[in-house]
Backbone:
């Protein structure tokens, strides 16, 4: 029982110490901090631009689906069914800004850096794939050997087309 418990704990420790888990933890922390920056941009820049057209708070934009009485003092719906489309718009803008910043400030430079690193690496010479003609010759040789019952000889009959073998017996 003790060995099993130590094995489980050892496995858990190895899991935690893998690079992927640590990188994921760092990404979550950085992402949480980055969310505050994006929210500040939306509240400090986007909302005032939208505010030039109406309310500065996008959460105030809504549409009534049914007859909704409006409070004359506040301008708010007092009853009815309404859709808060302003908060959806705010969330969509936050997402787009986040995605754009992550792409242009993180992903794009990282891809360019990786491309430069890959360009510096020497190209590995691997075995050359056979040409189409060589493959067709191998197929032909295999088919001939099936008909004649002989083992195929590599390169035998290069440039020649074997005559078909007759399986009929001649009657003399």
Residues:
């Amino acid at each position: 029982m003790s060995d099993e418990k130590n094995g489980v704990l050892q496995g858990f420790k190895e899991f935690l110490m893998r690079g992927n888990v640590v990188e994921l933890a760092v990404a979550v922390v950085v992402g949480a901090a980055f969310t505050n920056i994006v929210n500040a941009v939306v509240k400090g820049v986007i909302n005032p631009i939208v505010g030039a057209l109406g309310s500065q708070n996008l959460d105030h934009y809504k549409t009534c689906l049914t007859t909704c009485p409006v409070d004359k003092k506040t301008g708010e719906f007092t009853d009815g069914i309404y859709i808060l489309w302003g908060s959806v718009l705010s969330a969509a803008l936050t997402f787009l800004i986040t995605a754009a910043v992550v792409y242009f400030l993180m992903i794009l430079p990282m891809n360019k850096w990786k491309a430069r690193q890959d360009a510096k690496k020497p190209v590995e010479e691997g075995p050359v794939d056979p040409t189409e003609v060589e493959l067709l010759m191998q197929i032909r040789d295999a088919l001939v050997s099936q008909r004649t019952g002989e083992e195929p000889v590599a390169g035998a009959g290069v440039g020649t087309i074997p005559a078909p073998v007759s399986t009929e017996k001649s009657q003399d």
